[in-house]
Amino acid sequence: MKIIYKTKKEITVEEIIKVFKSVGWNKNPKDILDAFKNSYYVTAYHNDKLVAFARAISDGVYYTSIFDVIVDPQYQKKVLLKR
Question: Domains in the chain, ordered, with CATH?
């Protein structure tokens, strides 16, 4: 299984909401895109399908907080980072 990781890729509200719903989280579609636009994030794709993402907020100097590390249950425990 080939997973492609991307940063700064534009994603749609529909893609994000679908992954949130896959783990039982409900987010307001009207707010979620702004939340992503104001964050750093990494996305993971399998065959052009968004299957995971992680979002972080930073002051750019000292501190970063990680939020919303979400992986579609079909891909949990299957995606490994390789060096």
Answer: 4-71 (3.40.630.30)
For the chain, the distance separating the N- and C-terminal CA atoms, rounded to the nearest angstrom, is: 16
Q: pLDDT tens digits, residue range 15-39? A: 999 999 999 999 999 999 899 999 9
Residue found by looking up tokens 């890729």 in the block: 9
Angle at 52 between CA 46 and CA 57, to 5 degrees: 140
> 20: number of CA atoms within 13 Å, CB side?
16
pTM for this structure?
A: 0.85
